[in-house]
Amino acid sequence: MKRESIPFKRPAYLQKMNSSVRSHFERATSLPVFLSSSSTLNLEDRKTIVRQALLLIEQNYAHLPLKRAMHAIDPVQRLKLLLQTLEFGEETSMPSETEFHHEMTDIFTSLRDLHTNYLLPDPFRKMTAFLPFMVEDYFEGKERRYLVSHVSPGFSHPTFGPGVEVVYWNGMPIEKAVLNNAARYAGSNREARLARGVQTLTTRALIIAPAPSEEWVIVGYRTLDGELKEIRFDWMVNPPLPDAAEGDSRQQDLADMMTTGLDLEQDLIQQMRKALFAPQVIKAQKQVAVKLASGATLSDLDSTLPHIFQARTVTTPSGTFGYLRIFTFSHQDVPGFINEFIRLITLLPGEGLMLDVRSNGGGIIMNGEFLLQLLTPHPIEPEPVQFINTPLNLLICRNAPREVALDPWIESLKQALQSGASFSAGFPISETRACNQIGQRYFGPVVLIVDSLCYSTTDIFAAGFQDHSIGPVLGTDGTTGAGGANVWTHAIFSQLLTEADSPYKPLPKGTSLRVAVRRTLRVGRRAGTPVEDFGVIPDERHFLTRNDLLNKNQDLINRAGAILSTLPVRKLKIRSGKVATNQVSFTVDVQGITRIDVYVAERPIESIDIKLNQTAFTLSTAEETRRPLEIRAYDGNELVGRYRAEI
Q: Which InterPro entries does UniProt cross-reference here (predicted)?
């Protein structure tokens, strides 16, 4: 029986969107109109997809033994059964494409791994479903509650807006609706699934998540006056912003593509939310681009990368500190990313730094690991990564181009047959030398703020921060998202094995697959512990309040300030000036430091006890080549600062 269609009426708020994004939403359509345009995968297309998924999960997937043990699942058997059904089926009797997508999505979701995905074909891969408001959770005492924290600037309503409490969702108590929604998503732990369950109530990336079953939602809410009301919203569908990450980035350099750790779904959702609720950031991006192109300078804390960094000075009851939000590590220009981070932290107060990486889905692994050296005097050990031992992974490493640097793993993969080891030896993706080349640039205390939507490179960064004892980790959830891997797309495998007999075959109609191919291990006193499924457990917990959600995280920032106020403040400022031919003088201003040792070209030159928080020394610059200068700062016998430069 053909279902009667409801005529599509364009919501008024789309016409009132901010001018910086209004044209982007001109293509927005209703969910039923979008679904009516879906493509069709024929029987052979489906067989190809399942065969390639089986290959990646059985031969390349680094976490398969862990997932089988921890979640009592067998994705390989499920894929084999699905393939058998397709091989013995006929075109006329096969299930609908929607059923096929749901089965594939369910198999991949059972892995509880946001790195390992079935990426739907066109038109799903380019679309996001959305509602014009955002729901977030907070705590009142020990009770979790849900409120509307943002609405799209074009939306207005007499009683529904920021601050109203959501109590029902399609007639279901909101707590149960969140739990049901969370079960559809692949978070590595319960906290991560709950966070994704809240987030996807109103925004869904259709390249990974199933399209909503309902065409509209009925939201039961408590107004600011305490009255219970209901309101209906139709699901709308629109592409994310053009700079959102693609699931199959064929235009990137192969070596760069192979060093990614990204929660693709989180990245796409964040891009859509930026367009819906923070169009001023998009406007700022455009303004920055124009200013930089014309040679104009920015004000001190205005970032050249406003979609990545947000810096400001915050005043709390415990003192004044620096606050730096990192929204993503997904930026191909690694030196540009690092240099902008350095510029911002050196402009912020030296009394303490709040580094907020909540809801950061990751990106380029080197962006995360290279930052660590800027915050500590101690050497950084990047996380080692391992392949699962299979003949196919050995073949990939043997055949890989030299520039992608897979040689270190070959020997241990060759020994697997004799050793019986499940995994290869571990080697870092980030070069150890590069992780220590710049040295420390912020000398005050640092607190890292995380939540359960931190994932992938952000998990790696948070683990490195904790493992190197850089500072306390403050969490608004009980753990991070626990995504510990380097992720490759099917396209990468295809580019690594290009021979005619390659097992990797082209996928049909824009479909793609992603898989966690190298698992990450922690270092320091937690050395060898996988990041996957375990994540980073914060040193301290803050339960978000209503005030946090409605007033720029005020209580969270006050809590971070209270933590920073208990930590010693160190300052190390070096000024240089030429005093004679082939001689440079250095003036060193300090706080919380009693001695400095001076090294040139890794050789000790001078050790100076400091009085009255200042000292000076002079070095010869007679050599024609530039040499590395290193100043190690001590409080008593404890190394508390390390400055590096070239002279």
A: ClpP/crotonase-like_dom_sf, PDZ_sf, Tail-specific_protease
- In the block, residue with structure tokens 């070239």: 646
Cis link prior to 75 (omega < 30° from 0)? no
The reported pLDDT for the residue numbered 4 is 57
CB of 519 closer than 8 Å to CB of 530: yes
Stretch among 4-13, 178-187, 350-359, 606-615 having the lowest mean pLDDT: 4-13
Confidence of residue 3 (pLDDT cuts 50, 70, 90): low
Given this model, what pLDDT does residue 628 score? 92
- CA 594 to the chain's CA centroid: 39
Residues contacting 416, CB < 8 A, separation 6+: 389, 394, 424
Could you give the CA distance from residue 319 to residue 123 in angstroms, rounded to a whole number? 51
512 vs 109, 117, 156, 236, CA distance in Å?
Answer: 15, 8, 39, 24
CA dihedral 62, 67, 68, 74 (to 10 degrees): -90
Angle, CA 55 vertex, CA 50 and CA 59 arms, to 5°: 155
Share of the chain above pLDDT 90, in %: 81
The Cα diameter of the chain in Å comes to 93
Q: What CATH architecture does domain 254-564 belong to?
A: Alpha-Beta Complex (3.90)
Provide mean pLDDT across the span 286-295. 82
- Structure tokens belonging to residue 615: 């000292």
CATH code of the region 571-646: 2.60.40.10
Residue 352, token pair as written in the block = 């303490």
Q: How far apart are the first and last CA of the chain?
A: 80
Strands across the sheet containing 473-475: 309-316, 319-326, 353-356, 446-450, 473-475, 540-541
Comparing CA positions, the residue from 628, 575, 599 lying closest to residue 437 is 628
Give the tens place of pLDDT for each residue, 420-444. Answer: 899 999 999 999 999 999 999 999 9
Of 107, 136, 108, 66, give the one whose Cα is nearest residue 452.
136
Q: How many CB atoms lie within 10 A of CB 20?
A: 17
Q: Which residues pair with 166 in a beta bridge?
A: 221
Helix (H) or strand (E) holding 384: strand 384-386
**In this structure, what are the phi and psi dihedrals at residue 93, rounded to the nearest 5 degrees?**
-110, 5
Buried b (16+ CB within 10 A) or exposed e, 292-310: eeeeeeeeebbbbbbbbbb
**Across 254-263, 358-367, 499-508, least confident range:** 254-263
Given a contact cutoff of 8 angstroms between Cβ atoms, the answer to whether 596 and 588 are in contact is: yes
What pTM was computed for the model? 0.95
pLDDT bin (cut points 50, 70, 90) of residue 246 is very low
Per-residue pLDDT reduced to its tens digit, 458-481: 999 999 999 999 999 999 999 999
pLDDT band at 226 (very low <50, low <70, confident <90, very high): very high
Query: How would DSSP label each residue in 487-544?
Result: EEEHHHHHHH--STT-S--PPSTT-EEEEEEEEEB--GGGTT-BSTTT----SEE---
Residues paired with 619 in a beta bridge: 584
CA distance 640 to 204: 46
- Give the β-pairing of 427-428 and 614-620: unpaired
